[in-house]
Amino acid sequence: MFAAVDLGSNSFRLHIGKYENDSIRVIKSARDPIRLAAGIDKNGYLTEQACKSALDSLTRFRAILRDYSLDAVRVVATNTLRVAKNAHELLPELERAIGYPVEIISGEEEGRLIYMGVAGVLAEPNEERMVIDIGGGSTEVIRGLGGHIRHVESFGIGTVNQSLAFFPDGAITAVAFERAILSARSYVEDAVHLFSFSDSVNIYGSSGTIRAIADTIARNGMGDGRVTPAGLEDLMQRLIDFGHVSQIELDGMKPDRAGVIMGGLAVLIGFMQEFGIEVVTPVEAGLRMGVMWDLQLRATKADRRDMSVDDFSHRFHVDAARAHGVADTALGFFQLLKPATDSYARYLYWSALLHEAGLVVSPTGYHKHSSYLIANADLPGFTTREQRLMSTLILGQKGNLKKISEMLADVDFAKSVLALRLAVMFRHSHITLDLDKVKVKFKSKIELEIRRDYVKEHPSISFWIQKEQEWWAGIGVDFAVRVLA
């Protein structure tokens, strides 16, 4: 059983699902419409009340999760926590409230997970499709074939921010709608050419907003449950006729959605106009289903992050044999160092595979270039936090250790840095190591035992070991070396 928690700009949501018969069946859902995006003040900070609402919601979710025997839980945060200036201060409190790590994912990663959720539900391997997901703070558009994603874009426009910008006092006018629709079109007009499609491409709407709009259209005799320009025009006119959000009386429109429905409707109309879309079919799937499918893939060793590292390596012309040699050696050293847990093992391996990516920029300071690339690259499956971790590991592969000294307070992370540095050092000295004939410890100090024949056949290793001793001494760690016969 898997659980996906989505900290969205409009609502916090939870799905608990069970994988069976090649599908994921949702057995429990929860939703808190806390409107987090509306809690950002004029300076870009989440207000104290918004933070409290978020923490209260996650405390409730934690109580729900406690009742299930779960194989894995993943908590993802989207646009509002991407943009709020105090998000990283709030993050530890959110994690304590829910009891699990909270991952702030990029808009592109959000789009990929949304598409995975839709693809898992539709299960049509040869269908060409485009998926639109209008969230509270951003809108994702994804083009793909079956389970394969061809292109994804995230636009910083959503139901909450658009409603606040154009319908701030709840008044609903034709002029406000016209301005809101033009605004939505301006966000996407330069990206239309990236999503060119024929009449054979099916368009799906995966967000709660699109499903709510479609449901309202169907229940009130404006259409058949699909979204068309005529149905949207009819709904917009009815909202204008109501004149104010407090006066809306439409079958199926929940009161908690009424306040942001205008913004979502304007975005949907604007995007359909700009893309030239005639029909959008709502689908009961999206981010949370995608998160659970991703957890299922990880459980079966089909981790998207492995594919991302492989794709990135090819794109930046990394020497595969050399990279795998360093990665295997680094992992071997890490195991010799006996970490308390294996939590850094995979990140160490991936970092070693990518440690020379910066050579494509320049051999001089390549580790700095590699670090920057990994921190800022679009790596499907990885969170921002994971990329920062790998970026730090890669930066620490050589040279002065003071640049990452704060991270070295974590003993297991320090061991992963040492493992990568030793692997890089021995590889650069052209030594093919037999890890059964090397000993290394890291407790109060580092102790390395190395064979004399390594030193004799590869004289440069003596220089590198001496430099390594100096660099560790620079942060107050003794590095003792014994040369054995």
Automatic annotation (TrEMBL):
Gene3D superfamilies, A to Z: 3.30.420.40, Exopolyphosphatase. Domain 2, Hypothetical protein af1432
Q: Does the keyword Hydrolase apply?
A: yes
Kindly indicate whether the keyword Hydrolase belongs to this entry.
Answer: yes
Pfam entry (one): Ppx-GppA
Query: Residue ranges of the Ppx/GppA phosphatase N-terminal domain?
Result: 20-297
Q: Which PANTHER family does this UniProt record tie to the protein?
A: EXOPOLYPHOSPHATASE, RETROGRADE REGULATION PROTEIN 2
What name appears for this protein in its UniProt entry? Answer: Ppx/GppA family phosphatase
What is the source species?
Answer: Herbaspirillum chlorophenolicum
